[in-house]
């Protein structure tokens, strides 16, 4: 949405002109979900990089990646992969390649995603108290088993794409979310991860994960209200097939989430096709309905898309990007969906017996410019319930509530150097009465070269 549409509604606007450049305090997470790698190897897949055979973990690392994501199901009876034994195999390969590990608990015997969160068969019929205990114990016991073999992950997802009620009957909607129940289950998993980290002395970051950026804000606001706060990272999936937000708006959502909830944000799933031709008899999941008009379904288009998505996430204060299933190529094996794979045209390997690495891998080795951190310290009248608006955070949802303590509001955010930033506090939702006094022309300009603190006092 263009800025001029907001100017009549935001009469008291402060602006800052940012310039210079800065580096991220730490390198961003640039990685891939390689949960299919073991199955593909057992099915005879050969991957090559610059003509040399290598496994996907090695290829990820060689191109500059630093994080591998691995999923875990509870007790699947339809596959021997994504079990605890398979996860151990993957973590060993990741460690040999010098990669950090994100372990993704699905809390299911099968795929858990934004539409389905099927409860494990062993947990069906449990009352809430026993279900909460089951989540805690399964999480704790899994991490203890990994720690016993020196395989503790660096990051843990408590649930996968938990848009609706988790641990529910298959094919049920899960909306509206029963937050008292949902929060108890999420907090049980979180508590178990904290206990595992304390027991081993190995820090483990905790992520909560929701599919598609337009679903994030309401979910995390409700989670916070229900008492789900002891986590470190907001994870999101972003696929153009299912998301209405273009890349630029997705970026504002990333920054808005980091700013509003004071959490790190990681794009933990995305993908893009490099061709519309399927790799086998099975139809492709990502077809022409998954394309952004600016990026054709070619190897170069896939590469440009991944570079721009990653650049956008990091420019908006996100801590990195993880590509989903670059390793899921066509092999002699069949799946429940048919011959080969439904994902080959969105993998990061070409067709043919050698599965050559595509240029899309460049996203993990590219340099990404870092944003400038900015802190707002704003004084408001006692008893005020303020709402904050900034053009670079507005994804179409307008202002959002911020906490005031003893008449003070402190907001942490980031913007790219060279950005003209406009912002305002209001005394209620939407674009009501502004609380901050603007200059005569409604704009204040300032050059910022390092971390910056801005102060202002409410007044009209």
From TrEMBL:
Keywords on record: Glycosidase, Hydrolase, Signal
InterPro entries in alphabetical order: GH, Glyco_hydro_53
Lineage of source species: Bacteria, Pseudomonadati, Pseudomonadota, Alphaproteobacteria, Rhodospirillales
Enzyme Commission no: 3.2.1.89
Molecular functions per Gene Ontology: arabinogalactan endo-1,4-beta-galactosidase activity; glucosidase activity
Top EC class for this record: hydrolase
Reaction catalysis annotation: The enzyme specifically hydrolyzes (1->4)-beta-D-galactosidic linkages in type I arabinogalactans
Source species, domain of life: Bacteria
Protein name: Arabinogalactan endo-beta-1,4-galactanase
Tagged with keyword Hydrolase: yes
PANTHER family linked: ARABINOGALACTAN ENDO-BETA-1,4-GALACTANASE A, ENDO-BETA-1,4-GALACTANASE
Keyword Cytoplasm: no
Sequence similarity: Belongs to the glycosyl hydrolase 53 family.
Record's signal peptide: 1-25
Gene source species: Nitrospirillum amazonense
Pfam families to which the protein is assigned, alphabetical: Glyco_hydro_53
One of the protein's GO biological processes: pectin catabolic process
